[in-house]
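Entry 14. Structure prediction run on the chain below.
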Amino acid sequence: VKIFVNGPEKATTTTASDGVFTFADVPLTLGKNLLFAKASDNKGVQSDNSEFLSIAVDKDSPKVEITSPKDESTVKNLNKRIEIIGTVSEKAAITINDKTVIQKSDFSFDYWLGVEEGSVKIKVIATDAAGNKTEKEITVTYSKSS
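Output returned:
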């Protein structure tokens, strides 16, 4: 069995008696990679191309920006909630203090966090499709306004 990545052949392996085969350490490029395989028997007769598989290689962690509130600021209101607003540089799964947050189509997010008076740690975690993760933490003070 031969494996092809973005056109050229990259590796060859032999199937086991049950027809199962494995490729290890196939070189991929950063970004999109299109793979397919071809099999041949001991007489040199080749199969058609397999189905194509697309693999994206992404080694960069998403960038997280918390635009509001600012680190070490004081938030005053009567409803015991703080609105966290920010952006992530790419599509990602986002949590704030372990609660799932919906990312908008422009990669922004906003979330109302229930809080008590005093110091509040806000931890934003963004994880992209490749599993790259970024954590950003700020601390604010919450005070009920009168």
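The CA atoms of residues 73 and 124 lie 17 Å apart.
Filed with the rest of this week's runs.
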